[in-house]
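Entry 12.
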Amino acid sequence: MAYVRLMEYEWSDNPHEVDYYLPDGWDVTVYHIAGYRKPVLTPRQISKAIASPTRSPTISELAKGKKKVCILFDDMTRGTPASKIIPAVLAELKAGGIKDNQIEFICALGAHQAWDRSVLVRKVGEDIMEKYPVYNHTTFMNCTPLGKTSFGTKVEVNTEVMSCDLKVAISNIVPHPSYGFGGGGKIVMPGISSYESIYDHHGVTHKATRSPRTPDAKGVFDGNTSPIDAMEFARMAKIDFSINCMLNEKANVVAIYAGDIGAAHKLAVAAAKEHYRVPDVRDNDIAIANAYCKADEATIATAAAFIAVKRAGGTAVTIANSHLGQIAHYLSGNWGLSTGGRLLGAGISVPSWVNHNVFYSEFPEARNWDRWADKDLPKTIQPSNWAEVVSKLIEWHGFKAKVAVFPDGTNQYTPQPEYQE
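Predicted 3D structure (tokens):
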């Protein structure tokens, strides 16, 4: 048997490479992102990048005379290794005269579940958890109304954040199925916005431009009103300094775009379009998409597998090895057999050319059946043993098959806006 070596979920107890065995006779091609060999930044290079901002004073300059500082960071559905960025931010703050008791950290989780200490510490590190207060954003309370965006979207932002006179945001720049790319204004919308604002933004203002429930391997960024609106949220919340991290396939930081939230994000997106690019292949009997950085939002990887399957029919496999399971989402998730968030849909539709939809995880959850459209349940399986996956693939395709493997289907960019049959 041959094998492919893929990373397990970044925030697991021991993230490491796992060997996934495949039959020798299969023609297997691994499709890396274009920038997968880009050198990893050293701590010194991270500090230098943060101290050389785009269209903004440095953090140390912004910090002078400030009384209360919040550092925002994204949650466990994002690969940003915040603990590797925070030391450089703290050094800048201290150079600007900020004391430890003036600093707090807030997890910008949007409409996702709150996280406990055992999880947050993986993001920020033990030293930060011990020395500084680290809080979850709460979408259902303590949000301050700031008016409306030019799109007419209601803006309500975390009150604690708004009480700070210096706001620094740490996030990453990666492909996103409905915004095109994350980072930038998303740290505020949905990161630290109220439930009503998030619903208004997703479910009312931009309902017509959101990606369909059938996921695609990339969303459209250029001309997409969602990230434009989100950036207006960020401006209204007065985010002072933004740090966008570009990652490789192992969630190491390979570039940083820091400074003014709009200007830095514009540069980051331009670079990300090339860095995360993978070939647009659609001729495979089997497509295997690993979910690494966003293994708890693994259906993003499913999209990459769907597109790579040949239109004459084949199998899509998602590897979703997150010990945390799939994210609990207050806006679009199920909260019972017959209840869910205000934007709960009918489930993900499996494209007509995908004969078999395999959602594999060693940490099975029966509630994940809710993620698929009822009509596609007969061609969906959710095994928890890789041997069972391979057995089924051999049953369906024999010992001769063309196979595409994507090391992290959640963080790759395929330049197409939608499925094409």
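Annotation: Residues 71 and 105 are 5 Å apart (CA to CA). The longest strand covers residues 166-172.
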